Amino acid sequence: MFRTLQGVFRNGKIELVEHGDEIANETPVFVTILPVGLDLAAYDLDQAQAADLRARLAVFAADWDQPEMDVYNDYDTAKQQI
Question: What is the spatial distance between Cα 75 and Cα 23, in angstroms, rounded to a whole number?
Fold first, then answer.
């Protein structure tokens, strides 16, 4: 299962905001660099539209974070087991 930890890039190093103490040393990781800002114009959105979209999508966060939704992290494998 994939896990995401939040951090920042500072002085040439990645510093985690939260710690994954249960993650073993030498565990392979991928690091995704997120843009500092989002170019709303590239998505044909203004600030008000973006705020409205965030508010409407926020209702899905609680459902998506439920443990039973973990099956979607590897949906193809779970589907084969049916």
Answer: 23
Backbone angles phi, psi at 79, to 5 degrees: -65, -35
- Measured CA to CA, the distance from residue 45 to residue 38 in angstroms comes to 10
5 touches 20 (CB < 8 A): yes
In this prediction, residues 1-5 reach a mean pLDDT of 75
The per-residue pLDDT for 1 is 61
pTM confidence score: 0.39
Q: 3-class SS at 74?
A: helix
> Domain limits of the chain?
7-80
Residues 1, 70 contacting (CB under 8 angstroms): yes
pLDDT band at 52 (very low <50, low <70, confident <90, very high): very high
Q: What are 56's two structure tokens?
A: 């409407």
Per-residue pLDDT band for 54 (boundaries 50, 70, 90) equals confident
